[in-house]
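Ticket #4471: structure output looks truncated?

Reporter: J.K.
Steps to reproduce: submitted the chain below (214 residues) through the standard prediction queue, then opened the result file.
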Amino acid sequence: MDAFWLSLVMIFLAELGDKTQLVALTLATCYKTKTVLWGIFWATLAVHVFSAAIGWFIGDRLPSDWIGFIAGIAFIIFGLWTLRGDHLEEGEDSCKRTVHPFWLVFTTFFMAELGDKTMLSTITLATTNAFLPVWIGSTIGMVLSDGLAIVAGKMLGKRLPEKAIQIGAAMVFFIFGGYSMYQGGAAFSLQIWGLAILSLIVAAGFFLRKPAVR
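Returned output as attached by the reporter:
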């Protein structure tokens, strides 16, 4: 698949049910949809230029088979992360207006995206694809995902089939990740595959564990 469309689709899916999507929904209840999406676009463009650059820099310095294998593991982990879903911490859903709404959205999104699943997905995609298509595709994919959630949330009063969406998105990550692992690690030893599967089992236990009752 072309790098641009691959990045657009994968980041679109990664953003479904993500914390930053929930932030977008909340901000859209306080400010105009156009302002929120414009702030999201520029914040994502800024964050993902660094994400794509990091992935591109790493990708040029690692063997292609290992890149594909590790990227596959990463995408399966992102699938588990998607399956778990995110939630807003107390205080993150407030609409404080101390500055212009655009800059509030931009700053909120920029900070929320640092170290987030979509940022890590962009880095992973850029290890095996060209920098510019990944940067632009991932940015547009995220804005489309957030825009769809905002419109649907306003129309349905936020009553979205969240679990079904998460399962569907996670399955795409699992399929893509499994294919990437097979393509990159077909010649690897059983020991390497065993360690990879063990790491995925540990990741599954971490992401799918039941939250502690407070």
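Triage note (M.O.): checked the attachment and the full token line is present. Residues 39 and 102 are 5 Å apart (CA to CA).
Status: closed, working as intended.
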